[in-house]
Design brief:
This protein is 30% helix and 25% strand. With 430 residues, the chain is of the alpha/beta class. The structure holds ligand EPZ.
Length: 430
């Protein structure tokens, strides 16, 4: 069973190339089936979630050609059924994007209920509310979400909660509906905007993405496109906090600094220096970290997907910090693991009260979910001594070449899959 072996203590120093955004790639790949023409997509991250979605679409008859590691060509003109129910698709949350895409194009879809990280209830009522408002009949039976419509007609939809997934899903279905759809209280994340731009590159008519009111004028059909996905805001943020946590000096390259503003602001607050250029951000941590308070919010607020990473930094900061998780109800599972490394954190409901310590000590750790797993790796990289991280499949859902990129910054980390390899790593590292 593959695990990460880590010897902590090295400050991370250097430059790291950030890949394409997983959470933009997933809806864009799904939306590619909304045309019978060929779609080329660049900057697709080579991570488990995107690979699973591509595999699942192939099993439906979509032609997928991975002509390079980060470039994929998709043609859905020979899709043979509107059911996505293979074992693959149950593993990822983003499988539900196939509903919005197929409902839009074929006016019917059947998709296995989504999986994904267990960070909370992961409801889909807002997705269903949007599909029904457009005129679809939606049922859930035998573990499948089924949606069907004679035709889709534009509607005025007010989201009860700000939902990235629901905003994206309804936007896709509405793109090929008759008439205009308005989505109010919509999510504004960069990946929502990226999908809207992709659909518009296929001939859709979507305005207002990135604000809380999106207007979609339905069109009769969509054409092919050649599109490049935006850089991953959360992968970038993870490496930026790696600099803070290991007291290093890291430059994340091929990023959009605007998407990282809330992350850079918090790093400044806890005592790091930030240098921005047009497609890179440098984080230098040369002074002891200072405590602060943070509350996760929808974009442009501090991202919930960065909550474990900032908590790991605050647990090393002087003073008492408070982390409030306002998006998901079960996103502090990593705290028990940090406690075993010496952290002093008390979780009360959706709030973590953190009293900073001077250093972590190494331990055997279990990744509880994607982002918490990455955060535990960062803690181990700063810890005194040796750590292992198990259940790394969570981490590999969203981080491409994570150990390799960290090694490029001076980290002593390796992926090992036997006790023998583990012993070799320990002997080599000393
Ligand atoms: C997306 O999940 C991301 N996943 C998550 O990233 C991210 O944490 C989340 O957005 C918030 O930014 C992908 O894009 C694949 P939501 P999603 O719908 O769409 C509630 C990662 O690490 N809600 O914005 O599932 C929901 O329960 C992953 O890459 C409803 O109540 O998130 C949650 O409390 C983890 N009803 C809140 O809204 C609904 O119909 C936000 O969820 C939908 C959501």
């Amino acid at each position: 069973m593959e695990i990460y072996a880590i010897k902590g203590g090295n400050p991370l120093v250097g430059e790291v190339e950030i890949g394409g955004a997983k959470n933009a790639a997933l809806p864009i790949i799904a939306a590619s089936l909304m045309t019978d023409e060929t779609v080329h997509i660049d900057n697709v991250p080579d991570v488990r979630d995107t690979n699973v979605l591509l595999k699942s679409m192939e099993s439906m008859g979509v032609i997928v050609d991975r002509n390079a590691r980060h470039r994929v060509t998709i043609n859905a003109s020979h899709i043979h059924d509107y059911i996505a129910d293979d074992d693959n698709i149950k593993k990822i949350r983003a499988s539900y994007y196939l509903i919005g895409a197929m409902l839009g194009k074929y006016k019917e879809a059947q998709v296995a209920l989504p999986g994904g990280c267990n960070i909370g209830s992961r409801a889909i009522d807002q997705h269903i509310k949007g599909f029904k408002a457009l005129g679809a009949e939606v049922t859930i039976e035998y573990g499948l979400i089924k949606a069907k419509a004679d035709k889709l007609v534009g509607s005025h939809i007010y989201m009860d909660v700000v939902s990235v997934g629901a905003t994206i899903n309804v936007m896709m279905a509405a793109a090929l509906a008759e008439g205009t759809t308005i989505i109010e209280n919509s999510a504004k994340e960069p990946h929502v905007v990226d999908l809207a731009n992709f659909l518009n590159s296929m001939g859709a008519n979507i305005k207002g993405a990135g604000t809380d009111v999106i207007r979609i004028k339905g069109v009769s059909k969509l054409h092919g496109s050649d599109y490049t996905i935006i850089p991953d805001q959360i992968e970038a943020g993870t490496f930026m906090f790696a600099a803070a946590i290991t007291r290093g000096d890291v430059t994340v390259k091929n990023v959009i600094p605007k998407h990282l503003e809330s992350i850079s602001a918090k790093l400044l607050e806890i005592g790091c220096e930030i240098e921005e250029s047009d497609d890179a951000v440098r984080v230098v941590s040369s002074k002891p970290l200072i405590h602060t308070h943070v509350k996760t919010l929808p974009y442009p607020g501090f991202p919930t997907d960065m909550q474990p990473q900032i908590a790991v930094a605050l647990a090393l900061s002087q003073g008492t910090s408070i982390v409030t998780e306002s998006i998901f109800e079960n996103r502090f599972k990593y705290v028990d693991e940090l406690t075993r490394m010496g952290a002093n954190i008390k979780v009360e409901g959706n709030t973590a009260i953190i009293d900073g310590i001077s250093k972590y000590t190494g331990a055997s750790l279990m990744a509880p979910d994607l982002r918490a797993g990455a955060a535990l790796v960062l803690a181990a990289l700063s810890a005194e001594g040796f750590s292992t991280v198990e259940d790394i499949h969570y981490i590999e859902r969203g981080y491409e070449d994570f150990p390799l990129k960290l090694q490029g910054l001076g980290a002593q980390i390796e992926k090992v899959d036997s006790d023998r390899e583990l012993r070799k790593f320990k002997l080599k590292i000393g």
